[in-house]
Design goal:
Helix content is 73%, strand content 0%. The protein is mainly alpha-helical and 165 residues long. Keywords: Membrane, Transmembrane, Transmembrane helix.
C-alpha cells in the first residue's frame, strides 16, 4: 500500500482505540455502584442471560415506556462500536482471514473488556453487549471481505510492488 494510505489507516486505528478506551473505561458509569462490595456490584450490575437486555430495550422501545433514544443508543451503539475492529483486525493480523479466526480473536478481546469493566467498576458484564459487539465486528469483517475492498487492497499492493522496482 502507498505510504500515505498506511499512515492514514494507522492514525485512524490509534484514534479508534483511544475513543474505545474512553467510552469503555473512562466514563463514570461504575460510580453508581460505588457503595457496594465487589460481589454485590457483580451481582447487581451483571447480566449473564443472553438477550435479556436486548429484549428489554426492544420491548420498551415499541411500548414507549422508555425514552426511545436510550434503546437506540445502547443497541446500535454496541453494534457499531466494534464494527471497525472487524476491519482493523484482519488488516493488521493477516492470519485472521476467516470468520472463525475473527470470532475467536473477538471473543478473547470482548471477554477481556467485559471483565476489566467489572473489575475496575467502569461498567458491567453484560452478555448482550458481548453479542452486539460481536455482531458489529462480524459486520465489519463482512465489509472487509467484500469484493470491492479486496480489489482496492490488491490494487494498492500491486502499486506498492511496482513502486519498489
Amino acid at each position: 500500500m502507498k505510504k500515505g494510505i498506511k499512515i492514514v489507516i494507522n492514525i485512524s486505528f490509534v484514534c479508534y482505540l483511544v475513543a474505545l478506551a474512553v467510552l469503555l473505561f473512562l466514563s463514570s458509569r461504575g460510580f453508581l455502584w460505588s457503595g457496594l462490595t465487589w460481589m454485590e456490584y457483580i451481582r447487581n450490575s451483571s447480566n449473564f442471560v443472553p438477550f435479556k437486555t436486548i429484549s428489554t430495550y426492544v420491548t420498551r422501545f415499541f411500548d414507549g415506556s422508555m425514552n426511545r433514544d436510550i434503546p437506540i443508543k445502547n443497541l446500535f451503539g454496541n453494534l457499531l462500536l466494534f464494527l471497525p475492529m472487524g476491519i482493523y483486525l484482519p488488516y493488521y493480523i493477516t492470519k485472521i482471514n476467516k470468520i472463525r479466526d475473527l470470532a475467536i480473536a473477538m471473543s478473547v478481546i470482548l471477554i477481556l473488556i467485559e471483565v476489566v469493566q467489572v473489575v475496575t467498576r467502569r461498567g458491567s458484564f453484560d452478555i448482550d453487549d458481548f453479542i452486539l459487539n460481536m455482531l458489529g465486528a462480524l459486520m465489519g469483517f463482512g465489509i472487509w471481505k467484500t469484493k470491492i475492498i479486496q480489489k482496492l487492497l490488491r490494487q494498492n499492493l500491486q502499486g506498492q510492488v511496482n513502486e519498489n522496482f
